[in-house]
Amino acid sequence: MPEAVSIETPIARQIMSAAEHCAAAEDEFANAQRVHSSDPDEYRRAMDSALMHLRIAEVMTQGSSLVTEIAVAETNPAWKSIRMNAAHEAKAWNELLGRVRR
Question: What digits encode the pLDDT tens for the residues 23-41?
Answer without folding.
Answer: 999 999 999 999 999 999 9
